[in-house]
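Sanity check

After download, print the first record. It should look like this:
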Amino acid sequence: MTDSNLQNDVIALVRDLRNHRSVETNWPAFRELVETHLPELLRTVSTRWLISICDTYVDFGEPLRARHAMSISFFVNMLRLAETVKYVRPDVSAERLAEARGALIPLYDEVCTFSIDKQDVFLNLTRRFNALLCDDPVMEAIWREILKRLHAGNNVITEMAHGSPVEARYFPLDPRGLTDNYGR
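Expected structure tokens:
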């Protein structure tokens, strides 16, 4: 099967499943294609379709894989929210940026910004994702591919990371060997 045929078949199955067409035959066909051809899909489909694959597992997969898929989908969609806010309000206040480099600024209900220069939130979040997904080869591979693509692109994660002395802590591809603010 060519890469374009594979991609077209997976996209067609996603669309059919989202519209609840022939679920009893389309769901097994979808799983077979994704799980048999995962390396090719990771190489050829866009992040949009990787998330659609995750969303399809959320809707039809067994509970554990569905939760793993939901975690990945939720992560990317929250990143989309941040990117949309950046698009709508593109100007960064130099004064606020300087303030956020070191201080925790209250946002709401005891939730604060993270310190751009000292944050370890994303390092620890990545560790948790890795621990959560380590026994799920399909979702682990999708997660790693998405992280790789995020690091290669221009987005709020890479923008914050490039301006920070702890750049490696911003959703690292491999968090092993990196320490958090407590030396762990």
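If your output differs, re-run the checksum step. Summary of this record's structure: The two ends are 46 Å apart (CA to CA).
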